[in-house]
Amino acid sequence: MRSRRSVLSAIGSGLILSAGCISQLKDDPKLKFESIGVFNKTEQPHELTVRMIEDGKTVFRTSERVKPARNGDPGGHNFDQTWPTKPASYELHAKLEEKDEWIKVGAELADQGKCFNIRYMIDANGKLGVLQSPCSTSE
């Protein structure tokens, strides 16, 4: 007969292992991106660089000079879909040419779905932000 201590120890170890497995699944979400674009609300053009990273390796990189806003309408650009389309553990990193800071989206989206449209927004003050919406297909 097993002692109460050994049974509790075994249950505790199982819970810790289970928690580790659940955490690992959540930390490694499979995402895909249907479209990536940018809007520019400033009156100046800006260059935006976007990188898609999988397992620490850049699998897509592009830069685009984004036209300025005119008559209250934002300038914009939709990137050609040359990035990987299979679901994987991707992160998107983007930055404006004149800034050092990269903004990142990736694993935090997993609670909201698996497929996204990403729109970067350069606000009227020249600050870069990101908006996401679900894919038009039921992914």
CATH class of the largest domain: Mainly Beta
Strand content: 35-45%
Domain count: the total is 2
Overall, the morphology is globular
What is the radius of gyration?
A: 21 Å
Main sheet specs = 4 strands, mixed
* Beginning-to-end CA distance, first to last residue: 51 Å
Q: What is the CATH architecture assignment of the largest domain?
A: Sandwich
Q: What fold name goes in the CATH topology slot of the largest domain?
A: Immunoglobulin-like
Low-pLDDT segments: 1-25
N-to-C order of helices and strands: HEEEEEEEE
Number of strands: 8
**Whole-number mean pLDDT:** 83
Structural class: alpha+beta
Kindly describe this structure:
The protein is of the alpha+beta class and 139 residues long. The chain folds into two domains: 1-29; 31-134, Immunoglobulin-like. The protein has one helix and eight strands. The chain has one helix at residues 4-27, and strands at 32-40, 46-54, 57-66, 75-78, 90-96, 103-105, 115-122, 128-134. The protein has a four-stranded mixed sheet, with no helix packed on it. The protein has a four-stranded antiparallel sheet with strand order 3-2-5-6, with no helix packed on it. Strand 5 (90-96) and strand 6 form a beta hairpin. The longest helix has 24 residues, at 4-27. The protein is globular and about 40 Å long. The N and C termini lie far apart (51 Å). Residues 1-25 have low confidence and may be disordered.
